[in-house]
Amino acid sequence: QVQLVESGGGLVQPGGSLRLSCAASGSIFSTYTMGWYRQAPGKQRDVVATITRTGTINYTDSVKGRFTISRDNAKKMVYLQMNSLKPEDTAVYYCNAAPIATIPPGDYWGQGTQVTVSS
């Protein structure tokens, strides 16, 4: 099993930056596909970015060129660097872990961290 805890959210102005962190505990972290998902009020939880154990990265179109996902297997951490933030990026951001052979998202979620982009 895997436990996930997000941090780094907050209130920022449009055009600003935030770095989200996800700390994982449990075994076989390095074999998991990790991802960031977000959910705005009244909307579905949607994928933002994923990164596999081999480093393959996918972004949703709306964040390409602005967000960067990365992972540090030794530290059991995954990050989301968010630049040029827009009001439409406002959401609760969740970290997710999907075991090998599982189509993401997996069953392991963090508690979420609020990102609010507003002037």
Number of strands: 11
Which class best fits the helix and strand makeup? mainly beta
The poorly predicted ranges are: none
Overall average pLDDT: 96
Order of helices and strands: EEEEEEEEEEE
Distance between the termini: 40 Å
Proportion of strand residues: over 45%
Largest sheet report: 7 strands, mixed
Radius of gyration based on Cα positions: 13 Å
Number of helices, where a helix is a run of at least 4 consecutive DSSP H or I residues: 0
Helix content: under 10%
The outline comes out as globular
Structure description:
With 119 residues, the chain is mainly beta. It is built from no helices and eleven strands. It has strands at 2-7, 10-12, 18-26, 33-39, 46-51, 57-59, 67-72, 77-82, 91-98, 108-109, 113-117. The strands form two sheets. Strands 2, 4, 5, 6, 9, 10 and 11 form a seven-stranded mixed beta sheet that branches. The chain has a four-stranded antiparallel beta sheet with strand order 1-3-8-7, with no helix packed on it. A hairpin with a 6-residue loop joins strand 4 and strand 5.
